[in-house]
Amino acid sequence: MNFPAELKYTKDHEWIRVEGDEAVIGITDFAQRELGDIVFVDINTIGEEVAANEIFGTIEAVKTVSDLFIPVTATVLSINEAIDASPELVNSDPYGEGWIIRIKLNNAADVDALLTADQYKEEINA
């Protein structure tokens, strides 16, 4: 499994990549493997401020639907339009073309409290 060191992670299996006062969020390689074939991503919080650890959407695989939790308090700016047409990108490239949302951070320092790649690996016993 792949765990890019430049990202931060949550115990709920989301990752975040900070880009200035914005960030990109997706699910981890571990999460997409556990879910199986992803068929739909539903984000209904665009334009809304979502508190840390609250649900910002759902992700549907062939056999299950899982909630997506935002790692830090932020405003949801946009969804990755590519995954609307091709949700399987979350499976094939979870840290690249399969990203899920772009956010505007309320406080960039909040990201520092999240897990490093090594801490996340320990969390999932990888």
Describe this structure in words.
- This protein is an alpha+beta fold.
- It is 17% helix and 36% strand.
- It is built from 4 helices and 9 strands; from the N terminus they run E-E-E-H-E-E-E-E-E-H-H-E-H.
- It has a 6-stranded antiparallel beta sheet with strand order 1-2-3-9-8-5. Strands 4-6-7 form a 3-stranded antiparallel beta sheet.
- It is globular.
What is the structure about, briefly put?
The chain is 17% helix and 36% strand. It is of the alpha+beta class. The N and C termini lie close together (8 Å).
Strand order of the largest sheet: 1-2-3-9-8-5
Instruction: Work out the strand percent.
Output: 35-45%
- How many DSSP helices? 4
Mean of all residue-level pLDDT scores: 96
The run of helices and strands is: EEEHEEEEEHHEH
Distance between the termini: 8 Å
Secondary structure: number of strands:
9
Structural class, by secondary structure, is alpha+beta
Largest beta-sheet characterization: 6 strands, antiparallel
Q: pLDDT below 50 for ≥5 consecutive residues: which ranges? A: none
Radius of gyration: 13 Å
Helix content: 10-25%
The quaternary organization reads as single chain
Outline type: globular
Secondary structure topology:
Elements (H helix, E strand, L loop, with lengths): L7 E2 L4 E6 L2 E6 L1 H7 L2 E6 L5 E2 L4 E7 L3 E5 L4 E6 L2 H4 L3 H4 L8 E5 L11 H7 L3
Antiparallel strand pairs: 1-2, 2-3, 3-9, 4-6, 5-8, 6-7, 8-9
Output the keywords.
six-stranded antiparallel sheet, 126 residues, 4 helices, alpha+beta, single chain, three-stranded antiparallel sheet
